[in-house]
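Q: Start with the shorter request: fold the first protein.
A: Done. Sequence, then structure:
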Amino acid sequence: MTSKCEHSVKSARPVRLVVAAALLVLAGPAHAWAANIVVEWNATAIATALAAGEGALPQTRSMAIVAIAVNDAVNAITRRHAIYGLPLVAPGDASVDAAVAGAAHRALVRLYPSQTAAIDAALTASLAAHGVSPSDASIAFGELVADQTVAGRISDGVSTAQFPYTPPGAGSPGVWAPTLPAHLPAALPGWGRITPWVLRDGSQFRPDEGPSLTSRRYARDFDEIKAFGSAASLVRTPEQTNIALFWLTSAAVIWDGVLRQVATARGLDESDTAHAFALVNLAGADAGIACWDAKYTFNFWRPVTAIAEADADGNPDTTADPTWRPLAPTPNFPEFPSGHTVISGAMGTMLRLLFGDDPGVAFTASSPTNPGFTRTWGTFSAGIDEVIDARVWTGFHFRSSDEEGARIGRHVAQFVFQHALRDEERHDR
């Protein structure tokens, strides 16, 4: 694995590969399957989450579970990198490919039982493509590791994260109100209290204060999103609209896809690849927890409410427009901080810590929420900067919320990098 101090790679030219939401056909021909089976099963995991219709926040947890199961199965065999769970003894002459397939398949079936038929088909195709016998004992070992990983999260509090919620001070200026359709419940108000994977507590990087309605910064952010985030905007360019729609997909779809490109272009082996996916998705999962802790602490109103009710905000520099609507329907949870920039900030920063900001690979990313429109970046930071803009142009978040979100995500990633899967702590036989 490249150290965090390496900032570039000697290369004749940047490599441009495509990130697709469902990069691999689950039961496609052998030539459609990746040479690196860890890359392959990450693409299968993302495609499965999308097929199941899983929300972006729960998706961070699911992708972390799959990534940890695969990391622990691989590195229990290779002893290259540390594992997250309790050490398990792999069978003699264990097959890495078989263990990866077993771990990923079992974790996905446990997480997405409605997709079992497709996941089973993926397993059959994957084993055939990699020349692994269905009776290989290492498959069962991978399944055992996955069962342990899933069991470790059963009591993390996710089962009680959804409950009826009314924010304190509901109806007051600045306080979040349910967005259309108003009959939907507040989304996962208890997610910020579930057990983190690495952080000490969901509140560890909570901001000291939220936005101030009467500040000049708020008025500036208000005017910007009112102009650029409107469904009827006259100043947002067609490209900005496309970028906004592009980023309506989840952070995991984008950043796991970027990592698949890096792993392939760098020729990483299964141990290094599994280690990288585990760290990136641990950062994403803990970032989601940290973000939801802050969201339901500050309960700040969304632009769609703020612009309609600006006459009551106490700021002389804001003007109400009850007819204003955002480019896309506003999610039903508080505004501050921006969830996408927290999670993208964490995942993108973890990639930067692992490979340097410019790893020598230009990322040409695709999104299922804007098919046919691609984004190419030469650095991980460029992708993070873009999602900050995108959430303004979508009409979802004030810029200060996006920037604060990226800052929180950066701190989460740095903490995870410093405390999780440290190779000096790996379990040796």
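Q: Next, the second protein, separately.
A: Sequence, then structure:
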Amino acid sequence: MTTETIQDATATIHDTVREHYAAAAIRATQGGSCCSDPETIGAGLYSALERDELPDAAVLASLGCGNPIAVADLNPGERVLDLGSGGGIDVLLSAKRVGPTGRAFGVDMTDEMLALAQRNAREAGATNVEFLKGTIEALPLPAESIDVVISNCVVNLAADKTAVFREIARVLRPGGRIGITDIVAEDRLTADERAERGSYAGCIAGALSVSEFRDGLEAVGLSDVSITASHAVADGMISAIVQATKPADARPVIDLSAPRELPPAQTGCCGGTGCC
């Protein structure tokens, strides 16, 4: 496969995913949801108290397969990054956990989701959050700047999972950790069999197998990798909790892309994004 072919395939996946979630953001903004029954949004994933503490649009835009906040074990003062932050529900919940001395970042490539997340942050009165535009294959954050990386059913949507794992390892500080919920396939399924069970934007066709997910994290130097099934979503496809740690003595991950800097810290709901 040529470089141009890979780039075309990546662009196609990004466009498909962006279109799907832009529509979801618009529905949430208008009071609708991605699911058939708005009353059950987040039920089983987030507690009633968590849902009640957030703007309705943040809950309606929740498209994940789990609750990474429940497994990330966040502490006051930590810096948290949510990959594919969508309407901002996990960023806002993280911001509450890390408190005023910590900070929660969200990265998303969809303008409509970013606008919705920024609106939700204003309504929630969150002052320790930042929403940044970018892909999770090329995070707009400097190396070793994050304590905890979380994600809610987004890694499976990435066009280049190897790049995602490399970026996670790059932005994590030594001793940092991940708490991810995602869809993974049982090792017995081939890529074609995964595609038969659902679409890419529907979080199925792009899912890695359990072994592929584990090998990908270990290949970038993460350790103590655990992948725990939480529930089945289709034949051979499961929602799983993924945890791992960056060793305290880990060497910096080589970054060959353009230098990245954090936006200047500002007061207000959206930090350096200028949305306020």
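Q: Describe the second briefly.
A: Residues 32-44, 262-276 have pLDDT under 50 and may be disordered. The beta strands are 79-83, 103-108, 129-133, 146-152, 172-185, 223-234, 237-245.
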